[in-house]
Amino acid sequence: MKIIHLANHAQCIGNGIVNVMVDLACLQARAGHDVTVASAGGGFETLLARHGVRHVLLPQSPRPSRVASMVAGFRRLVAQVDPDIVHAHMMTGALIARVSTLRRRYALITTVHNEFQRSATLMGVGDHVVAVSDAVAAAMARRGIAPARLSVVRNGTIGTPRLADTPVPAQPQLAHPCVVTVSGMYERKGIGDLLRAFALLRQRVPHATLYLVGDGPDRAAMETLAQQLGIAAQVRFEGFVADPRAYLAQADVFVLASHYEAAGLVLCEAREMGRAIVATRVGGIPEMLDGGEAGVLVPVQDPAALAQALGHLMTEPDAHTALTARAPLELEKFGVHQVSDGYLSIYERTLASCQPRRFASIATRGMAAASRVVQDTVTHSTTI
């Protein structure tokens, strides 16, 4: 198949949507498909090229002033590639692919990575819509996506080409006991809840240190909150780290305290490292933790419950050992090969059901026939 993936950018900034797309494009190219990624670029182009994936510069933005150039650029790309599948991972690309041509010869696949956004409804323009967890699929069904057009392919990072043949970094060396999160610095990621929980945890585990790995617009507010809670000296704001495995490998407990989470890739990474995990029972998180067997699930936006779970794991060695032993089991379902195979199956079924090339050819023949009729009529009228 000839496949085009659309995303706003290809930056190596910890964006889960981009990471999934890059993994998928590399695996599909490795399987022998003709794969192109179209985005504003930003860092993954070398990796994509190494796996036989073309990258085409196609800036995508929701700004109305950019629509004409985006549509023109996409049309040129389609004319060059003549794809069987266009796979849009973000809303702008989905809309471009839907409206740019009347006689599509490709099937449009959209993936809903962030269902909590209202704009996620627009991903329903796809011929087939893929949700990254059962929770997201249920939410999209409530938004009116018919079951026949909706499938689930869970995110996974096991075997990612982004880290292939790259050893786990040895540095930095963390202080112990420690709690680690790898997350964007957004309020919706529950960073404030984690800071409040850590302040409570310090009463039980006074020598604990909290490592916050990630960056984002709410970082300054979180640093201020740490000061207000009196824990700034025990909290390390590490910023964005391209390869956070050193932090995961040394975490005594890994935490994901999100208010919304479709299917956090970092949970796969923490499980692969054999970490004890505490996470909120929200969105697709329970599915990533086998319903709570591979991690402790706590209520969302409940710092007291989060602190209690952390304290239990950090003071009860048997509970901690049992959880670290369970975390890395049954991870095959989160392998990047399974993700790629799942999408390829959906591509094939969608092409078979909507037959875009057949209908495009029929429409083209119809237009050609109509053009001949018009020409004949004009010629006949001139002769008379």
TrEMBL record:
SUPFAM superfamilies per the UniProt record, alphabetical: UDP-Glycosyltransferase/glycogen phosphorylase
One Gene Ontology MF term: glycosyltransferase activity
Limits of the Glycosyltransferase subfamily 4-like N-terminal domain: 15-156
Pfam family, one: Glyco_transf_4
Keywords, alphabetical: Transferase
Keyword Transferase: yes
Xref: CDD domains: GT4_PimA-like
InterPro entries: Glyco_trans_4-like_N (IPR028098)
Official protein name in the record: Glycosyltransferase
Species assigned in the record: Paraburkholderia aromaticivorans
Taxonomic lineage of the native organism: Bacteria, Pseudomonadati, Pseudomonadota, Betaproteobacteria, Burkholderiales
